[in-house]
């Protein structure tokens, strides 16, 4: 039994079916509506920390290739990415990064402006260089959970039960808001950023919630051939923690306060998803703040060298993140019940490998390159 219909829950259900299990899949809403569908859909290898995290991410990337062949509705494309810099100090960071031993594993190459435009002709702004990462990829986040479910519903061993808000779990049993009880030989709870359930509360785990803001434009008239990040992402992603990073000037007050980085991804309908921000101190504001959006739109226009289509929607999202430098949080509640959450902003990138890793741990198997999960057993 899997509780949670987001990308992590769907991956656990899908890979459990691959193992030959019968799967009962419960979701509190009619569809997933949390961070799983409020993100860029980036499979982001370029930013992962060298070592175990990169190894795990590359394994997940290979799993995404397999899933794309099995589930075309994911909207998967191996489009790669460009991280764009505009100053000499930012360029020195990229030079340090491409000189590192793991650059070949990521497929990194440092491109001058004409080479950047050759890779992505829509990048026509005043830039100094771009870091190309062909191993990065993208999916359609709003399609992923439903596409996986459609594939699973073709199996008689799979039961999808939406509108089942699970309030408590224990000893292989889940109880929903109507008092209905569901039992499984193994129960995996993927609660996302929820406040927990009876039998498990996130406050006692090494987890925090992170709020982000994003927007989506009307369709852009050109096809962007890569995902795009700007130099603010150098401060955010651990892959760029090189000596030259300390030489960057401090960010503007707005960027520092809202922890802003530009990520830009074109959806299959041509629209652009642009963000994002990071807030860690709860309680979170219910309102969306305009200033970060204005900044991000200006940054995107400066890189593309043109105006953007009108904004058609803006939103905020909240995800759960492990706080102890682990890739995700896995907690065993009893002999039959586990919680898997806390992937943070890496959730879409790592979801297949997290599910594979968690299932292997639950069944006492060993995987090469297994994740270092923040794991607790009671």
Structure summary:
The chain is of the alpha/beta class and 378 residues long. It has 9 helices and 20 strands. The strands form 4 sheets. Strands 5-6-4-14-15-16-13-17 form an 8-stranded mixed beta sheet. Strands 8-2-1-12-19-18-20 form a 7-stranded mixed beta sheet, covered by helices on one side.
Number of DSSP E strands: 20
Measured as a percent range, the helix fraction is 25-40%
Which second-level CATH architecture of the largest domain applies?
2-Layer Sandwich
Principal-axis shape: globular
Q: Tell me the name of the CATH homologous superfamily of the largest domain.
A: D-Amino Acid Oxidase, subunit A, domain 2
Backbone structural class: alpha/beta
Q: Using only CA atoms, what is the Rg?
A: 21 Å
Structure description:
The protein is an alpha/beta fold and 378 residues long. Helix content is 26%, strand content 24%. It has helices at residues 7-18, 52-70, 88-98, 103-106, 113-119, 144-152, 253-258, 290-304, 347-362; strands at residues 2-3, 23-26, 42-43, 81-85, 109-111, 129-133, 137-138, 158-161, 166-170, 173-176, 181-183, 187-189, 207-217, 227-229, 263-266, 272-275, 311-322, 329-334, 337-341, 374-377. The chain has an eight-stranded mixed beta sheet. The chain has a seven-stranded mixed beta sheet with strand order 8-2-1-12-19-18-20, with helices on one face. It has a three-stranded antiparallel beta sheet with strand order 9-10-11, with no helix packed on it. β15 (263-266) and β16 form a beta hairpin.
